Amino acid sequence: MAQPPRNDTTPWATWASFDANPWTQWAQQAWASATSGSAPAPALAGLTQVLRGLGGQPLQLDAAQWLQIQQDYLRELTELWQQGSHVPPPADKRFAGQAWASNPVAAFQAALYLLNARTLMRMAEAVQADAKTRARIRFAVQQWIDATAPSNFLAFNAEALQKAIDTRGESLARGLVNLLQDLQRGQVSMTDPNAFEVGRNVATTEGQVVFENALFQLIEYKPLTPKVYERPLLVVPPCINKYYILDLQPDNSFLRYAVEQGHRTFVISWRNPDASLAQATWDDYIEDAVIRAIDIVRDIGKADTINTLGFCVGGTMLGTALAVLTARGERKVHSVTFLTTLLDFTETGVLDVFIDEAFVTMRELQFANGGLLPGRDLATTFSFLRPNDLVWNYVVGNYLKGETPPPFDLLYWNSDSTNLPGKWYAWYLRHTYLQNELCQPGKLQVCGVPVDLGAIDMPAYIYGSREDHIVPIAGAYATTQHLGGPMRFVMGASGHIAGVINPAAKGKRSFWTAPEGHFPPSVDAWIDAATEHKGSWWTDWSPWLAAQAGRQVAAPRSYGNRRYKPIEPAPGRYVRVKADEALATLLSAPLASANPQAK
Fold first, then answer.
1. pTM of the predicted model, to two decimals?
2. How many CB atoms are located within 10 Å of the residue 45 CB?
3. How do residues 520-578 score in pLDDT, each as one tens digit?
4. Distance (Å, rounded) from C-alpha 197 to C-alpha 441?
5. What residues are annotated to the active site?
6. Can you give the three-state secondary structure of 381-429, one letter per residue?
7. CB distance 196 to 409 below 8 Å
8. Tens digit of each residue's pLDDT (9 = 90 or more) over 100-135
9. Could you tell me the sign of the dihedral formed by the alpha carbons of 188, 191, 193, 197, in that order?
10. Cα–Cα dist 353/134, whole Å
11. Read out DSSP for 139-158?
């Protein structure tokens, strides 16, 4: 087979690695076709077979686009080859170290990899298929691109090899120890697991658990102001993670900020599901957790109505609970805040590539008799949504370079996963992600009543993060098209977590607001009319919530009341249970029915 022109100054190792590189087999066919004057049909036919495997159905590439991709690739490959050992270091943080720039073999390998990666993504973009199939192919190709980066392999990672030489092999020994420890933990370490402890240096806002049942503990926080607003605030975090993302440390704790603003603040701390919750359903979580917590906070706060806030899936459950209460004619909540929440699942971003009828049916069959979805499965899925930042970065640092990742409270929380009841999870997949029924008036029955988001006519504050890959900004904005009360929509900078946890005192990033009552169907039209403000969206939310909170009264001197007495100091027992510990109970106990009754 004819080969691209070989530069004699190019090291043989580099040439050999190119020749064996599976990414370029199609290019070699194209080169042979080009030099012989024949058409590129064989290469295109072979690629079509590969794409059929990715898409699960016959797929085609546009012939004109395919020819242009071939021509561009061969041109760039020739230019790269002519540079030989003088390839400049690629502008990619994975290859930014001096060791890559000073090693011509490594620099060439990195540049070749990036050329192959760009070309393969162009090929994925050229696939002629429906939008979902195209998204799945792009996702699969991107995963492969990220996994096969030369920086992920010791033999090709110039920095790791240089460090091994400089430390006389000590970095490799430390890397092996790190690998063995992570194998025991069952996950790649993103931060020093010994640097944090729940209740010691994360989740430290002072408070007491004032209620618990099989599903959750309710924490009441100690007031930090002499007066508090008469309407308490109940926070519903996602049950797929632990609540203390909202209470990491004092300087970035959203819960502490709410307390400092004079709100009598309560938060749900979800139980890490074990065998006793193997039969728990979506209805159980709505009736015996969210609605139960609303009633308890009203009782303790002696308030007819309270303010509420839901974050991510916690917001989805809170929105469902409010629709249930509305259908029952019960007005127990005065206002609601939704943070990066999906109520309309039309725009679900990259997560949509996983969801189809076959996948949901498989999960329904898997959990037909109950069971638990391991927290590790969810954590792995979310990590591979950003594999370079949340997987391969730590594989390289921990194992190839023998480094210990630095302490980082957010990543410690990210590694502290939770299980999910299988029936809850299967219901959630089908009725929200797959069939998008929550936003269809009367389509769903929850807790025995039909739900209608449009009947929720209370004031609502809706927040979305501009770069969110879990709840895309269009998905967060879509809530404005369904609620029936006065609304305020705010867009913040950054992603799903960093956008929300943006302390007001630090004055970082930006947020955007539009004229009051301006809610066009498209989020792009809203953005066009929006005004940017420097700093945290917290400073916009705080006066909005204050206007919903009623008059100020003397702060309580004790927690709870005669009916709901303090049980234990915050953060409580439930948040300390690890997912693997809870999952292990399934091995020693038969599937049990959920018992969400109070102790």
1. 0.87
2. 10
3. 999 999 999 999 999 999 999 999 999 999 999 999 999 999 999 999 999 999 999 99
4. 44
5. 312
6. HHHCCCHHHHHHHHHHHHHHCCCCCCCCHHHHHHHCCCCEEHHHHHHHH
7. yes
8. 988 988 999 999 999 999 999 998 888 888 888 888
9. negative
10. 9
11. HHHHHHHHHT-GGGSTTT-H
Torsion, Cα 30 36 40 46, to 10 degrees, reads -60
Instruction: Name the DSSP letter for residue 305.
Output: S
* β-sheet with 207-212: strand ranges across: 531-534, 510-513, 487-492, 460-465, 333-339, 306-311, 233-236, 265-270, 216-221, 207-212, 568-569
Residues in the chain: 599
Q: Tell me what pLDDT residue 590 has.
A: 54
Residues 472, 347: contact at Cβ < 8 Å?
yes
Burial class of residue 154 (count of CB atoms within 10 Å of its CB; 0-12, 13-18, 19+)? middle
Containing 569, the helix (H) or strand (E) segment is strand 568-569
Write the DSSP string, 206-275. -EEEEEE-SSEEEEEEPPSSSEEESS-EEEE--TTS-GGGGSSSGGG-HHHHHHHTT--EEEEEE----G
Regions in the chain scoring below 70 on pLDDT: 1-59, 587-599
